[in-house]
Design goal:
Shape: elongated
Number of strands: 9
Number of domains: 2
Largest sheet: 6 strands, antiparallel
Helix content: 40-55%
Order of helices and strands: HEEHEEEEEEHHHHEH
Strand content: 15-25%
């Protein structure tokens, strides 16, 4: 910037005033725009052991997806800078299947039984921005996050209520503790009953060691990991008696 003239004082004053004016506009232009971020609220729920059919899972996830869509309809519009992702995964290892969305297509090769399921929903900057559902043998957890506290609570409670209708007894802890106690009881009964029969000639008590021996055999042969699974999703009936007996399917 150059200011020229014969009046030195005026030249200096005009130059200083113009420089000051330009610097003020430059500082204002360089100052970043502050966008207030709303606080994020997260609701996490631990779920009980579950046995459920694929049909019931699809119903629960479809209902959750509708609630999410309604909650994000006004405040969660889809401008170009918002990224929405949704995925559903079932099974583990080589039998794992993952699809985009919250339901399996009709041509998907869904296993007859699976012991893990994960559903993930993410919509950046939406009122309800995240839902994570992880169901497995060890843990079963539901987590919903967003800035709309009422909607987060409502969706979390609704999905928990739908899934809890299929509560079962199971899990790794149940199998370990229950199996260990039953093993001790059966072995003790076998030893005591056998001692009375052999040493005391109390043959009328022969049923006790026989019953204990049969119980021990069943303890190691029955599919307790399926019967007392922490989480299991099946095609058709969830009862292991119905699924293991072909006559119930006819």
């Amino acid at each position: 910037m150059t200011v020229s003239g014969t009046a030195v004082d005026q030249v200096e004053a005009i130059s200083a005033a113009l420089e000051r004016h330009l610097l003020q506009h430059s500082a204002a232009a360089e100052q970043p725009e502050f966008v207030e971020q709303k606080p994020q609220y997260t609701r996490t729920r631990e779920l009980p052991a579950l046995k459920i059919s694929f049909t019931d899972v699809q119903f629960a996830l479809e209902k959750a997806a509708n609630l999410l869509s309604n909650a994000n309809r006004d405040g969660g519009k889809k401008p170009k800078d918002i990224f929405l992702s949704e995925s559903l995964r079932v099974g583990t290892g080589p039998d794992e299947i993952e699809v985009t969305g919250h339901s399996f297509p009709a041509n998907a090769h869904v296993p007859k039984a699976a012991y893990a399921l994960s559903y993930s929903y993410s919509w950046r900057d939406a009122p309800v921005s995240r839902l994570q559902l992880d169901l497995g043998d060890w843990t079963r957890r539901l987590s919903v996050s967003g800035t709309a506290v009422d909607q987060v609570e409502a969706i979390s409670a609704a999905l928990e209520r739908d899934l809890s209708q299929h509560t079962a007894v199971g899990g790794d802890m149940v199998r370990t503790v229950g199996g260990g106690l039953l093993f001790i009881v059966l072995v003790t009964s076998l030893v005591i009953g056998g001692s009375f029969c052999i040493v005391g000639r109390e043959w009328r008590l022969l049923g006790m060691p026989i019953f204990s021996l049969v119980g021990l055999v069943l303890l190691f042969t029955l599919p307790f990991k399926d019967i007392f699974a922490g989480f299991a999703v099946y095609q058709g009936e969830t009862s292991w008696i119905v699924r293991l007996n072909p006559r119930w399917h006819s």
